[in-house]
Amino acid sequence: xxxxxxxxxxxxxxxxxxxxxxxxxxxxxxxxxxxxxxxxxxxxxxxxxxxxxxxxxxxxxxxxxxxxxxxxxxxxxxxxxxxxxxxxxxxxxxxxxxxxxxxxxxxxxxxxxxxxxxxxxxxxxxxxxxxxxxxxxxxxxxxxxxxxxxxxxxxxxxxxxxxxxxxxxxxxxxxxxxxxxxxxxxxxxxxxxxxxxxxxxxxxxxxxxxxxxxxxxxxxxxxxxxxxxxxxxxxxxxxxxxxxxxxxxxxxxxxxxxxxxxxxxxxxxxxxxxxxxxxxxxxxxxxxxxxxxxxxxxxxxxxxxxxxxxxxxxxxxxxxxxxxxxxxxxxxxxxxxxxxxxxxxxxxxxxxxxxxxxxxxxxxxxxxxxxxxxxxxxxxxxxxxxxxxxxxxxxxxxxxxxxxxxxxxxxxxxxxxxxxxxxxxxxxxxxxxxxxxxxxxxxxxxxxxxxxxxxxxxxxxxxxxxxxxxxxxxxxxxxxxxxxxxxxxxxxxxxxxxxxxxxxxxxxxxxxxxxxxxxxxxxxxxxxxxxxxxxxxxxxxxxxxxxxxxxxxxxxxxxxxxxxxxxxxxxxxxxxxxxxxxxxxxxxxxxxxxxxxxxxxxxxxxxxxxxxxxxxxxxxxxxxxxxxxxxxxxxxxxxxxxxxxxxxxxxxxxxxxxxxxxxxxxxxxxxxxxxxxxxxxxxxxxx
Length: 687
Hints:
This protein is mainly beta. Helix content is 7%, strand content 43%.
């Protein structure tokens, strides 16, 4: 087939090009047929410029068109604020331009309200938490992207609103946890003093006459503002008095069956005596005895030739079935005085001496030798001796004895034809008054106190220590030990774990009453990060495998990945707070934080972090490493509690002459593929 008049081959394809050149020439400002100046015809938003000897109208920046008849505003914001201005921005078009504004909660890095991003300015998060008191009393501020949240600090509970809360929209207030009065235990009591703040503990025990298994228990003030329910169930003890017998004519012995080991039991011994002579009246007397023996015995001051009924029972609050024994004391010659006598104990430290002789008015002298020792103190000794003269038939002598001491008292009748001696043992109970005062802590784990005792007398102190951690519910530490000291101002340093709340009960063994003090130990450095060290030279960097650290020395707060120039590794301090984000540095000469993860966001097993993946971890941008540079990558663990912050660091990798990371290589590959596709399309269009 022949070609038509328009089928001119190459000429046909050149026609559009010629038309475009003609239009361009017309726009180039060549003088018109009338000889007018082209510059005079430029659009109001265009500028006349001289190029290659010709005048041309060009639309101003921000406008598009032919420069003469049309220059319309170019809307730069049409592509979206994120693409034009960056993250967290709003884009605002203006005639011939535009400007960017950071969203609420963010600020421009040039510190101006508006900005153009071509100078490197971007929007960074405002840390509202830098303003103290933002979350009101007891509140803790947590910064978030573009805003912040308020939580109640440890030891406080939210009231009248939600948690987390915002102080401008919520009425939530943080009130200090106060568990109030601990719950009562029927027939039980609380040992020592206590506080009602978070973590405080009270220790319960059963009243005298009651028992429980276990014998005591602890209740703690919880984070809910309530006390734990005490697990103490006190049951009444019924003491059985069996096998009452008489020995040495005026002494009584019996046995008990108690469900408690070595209990201190008080007895009431009621004595009723009737002489054989009907002319004499009935004699009644009551003797008290306290002992921890399972076979108690007591020698009574009785008259010879008398019928007696002795009733033995436990003193309240204990209960017992009373035991009764009746007997008659032997007759003695009215004129005979062989110097014999017996001794009985009453009111714990008083002795009653009963002469067998019925002679009245004669004077007698007794010699007392007293020796006291404490089973728990090898060097303790209390010795005294004195003479006592009396004309009484049944004299009473009260001794000045120390508490919690075993005494042997030897009494000898002097000036008698027959030198007669009687020996008796007395076990004094602990003092019912407090013997420890002014207890205080120092150096975090040490205690000092004032001992109310005789100077230079040795004393033993019993410690019972309980430790708990609010952030580690399974943690519990309990210690019991004793020390001896003769100082009036003893001191002791305790082996306590860091980051722990402790209750310490301290009791002098000579007293029944302990004192309780609370101690809080500060945190120390967390365990070193568990990482496998790598050295990479011109090769891809493996993923950082992050393992959760154990909270041995305090609560773990966060994990950070730090990227430093390799030259700074030897001078880097793990406690340094100077590392900043990638964008806040003009250069990376000082290093930057590539990632930060809160402890609660790290799984229990492990997680992997690719270095340089261009993602945000917390507030920090994980920037790709620069090619040809040497880096040191460090993993840092932070522990924070009670306004104390501690760190531990480990070098994970040394990168020398770094190459493109995996993601960077993928980006280059995709870019190359896009160029090939564009060139192919243009080639087909030209055909």
